[in-house]
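Structure in, sequence out. Go:
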């Protein structure tokens, strides 16, 4: 049984002609992509390269990238890049661009799994940072609420941060200060 060969379009980008390592050069990127396509059995139908285009430039405003995407769309091809940073240096811009391509049926395939893992790590860090910010906001809101309740009711003794939130101590033993009852704010 013969399997269908998937088409691939290679896209490479450099910000300047002067690059640090051969793998960062335009030819190095193309070589990485071609090796990847060969290993995966992908048929390369076109190459698109841009020189002098910064990674912070919006992906939708790049001429050659637009042509590469159009080739992918017309030929049901996957867009192969050496690293995701060739598409954008901004994570949010990259996700927006990827979503737009997904909506037109174009899949992005980075030839370097190392970059994919780095992206996943960055996304995970961003989510963790967001969760920490939300947690901090909730704690601060609980403390503000507890302070407000103290002024209104006069029963508030102290505020204790528990594992799952901020608690108002309703009553304490007078001399020891041990909590005998509390309620979640």
């Amino acid at each position: 049984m013969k399997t269908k060969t998937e088409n691939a379009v290679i896209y490479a980008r450099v910000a300047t002609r002067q690059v640090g390592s051969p793998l960062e050069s335009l030819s190095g990127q193309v070589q990485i992509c071609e090796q990847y396509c060969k290993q995966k059995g992908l048929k390369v139908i076109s190459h698109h390269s841009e020189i002098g285009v910064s990674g912070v430039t919006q992906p939708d405003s790049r001429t050659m990238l637009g042509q590469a995407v159009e080739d992918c769309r017309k030929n049901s091809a996957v867009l192969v890049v050496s690293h995701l940073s060739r598409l954008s240096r901004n994570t949010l811009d990259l996700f927006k661009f990827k979503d737009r391509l997904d909506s037109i049926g174009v899949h992005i395939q980075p030839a370097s799994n190392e970059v994919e893992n780095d992206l996943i790590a960055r996304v995970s860090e961003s989510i963790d940072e967001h969760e920490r910010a939300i947690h901090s906001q909730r704690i601060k809101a609980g403390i503000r609420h507890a302070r407000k309740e103290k002024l209104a009711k006069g029963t508030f003794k102290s505020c204790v941060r528990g594992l799952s939130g901020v608690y108002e101590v309703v009553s304490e033993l007078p001399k020891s200060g041990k909590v005998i009852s509390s309620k979640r704010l």
